[in-house]
Structures are given as structure tokens and as C-alpha cells.
Amino acid sequence: MPLEDVIFGVKFYAEQARLTMALQAITIAAFGIGILMHQRWGLILALLYMAQVIAGHAIFIASNLGVESQRIHVKIASIESPVVLLIALYVWYRSRPLLRPISA
User: Fold this and answer.
1) Closest among 2, 8, 13 to 60, alpha carbons compared
2) Rounded-to-integer distance, Cα 103 and Cα 84, Å
3) pLDDT (tens digit, 9 = 90+) per residue, 33-54?
């Protein structure tokens, strides 16, 4: 079975999947470093990444809902979606004070 990856509901296989996974790993490392360094951009990048994950799940589920060969993948994405949404909401909630502009 070839390697596969999904971004914004689009499936990638083999070398393209390897490239998209590498780009995601770089993104996660970048926002991880930003958060560890207490940088505002780290949180913003993390929130943007989480928005991409949520949108990707929704697009994938909606576009493959009636496809019999994707039934198990749609089921898995449907089970993962509430957890991903809760993580995104938690990151957003905890980062609100840091995302507000500093007023003098």
C-alpha cells in the first residue's frame, strides 16, 4: 500500500505524500519552537494549522461521504473531528490574552 496524506481534503500518494508530510512536520516544528520561545507568531501559526486540519477534515468528509471505497476513512475522520476541534478551541482559548494587541 503506497504512502498517503490528506491536506484540505485532497489525497496525495507516494512521493507527493512524502513531501506534504515533510512540509507539515516543518510547520509543526516551527510553531512548536515559536510557542516554546513565547512568540506570538508561534500561536498564530498553530491556530492557522489547526484551522487547516479542521477544514481538511470537513472537506474530506463532505467530498467522500458517498464513496464506498472511502467509507472507513470517512468514519475515522468523523471520529477524529470532535477531538481536533476541541484541541483547536483549547489552543485558541489559552492563547487569547497573547493574541490581543497590547494597549498602552
Assistant:
1) 8
2) 32
3) 998 998 888 988 999 999 999 9
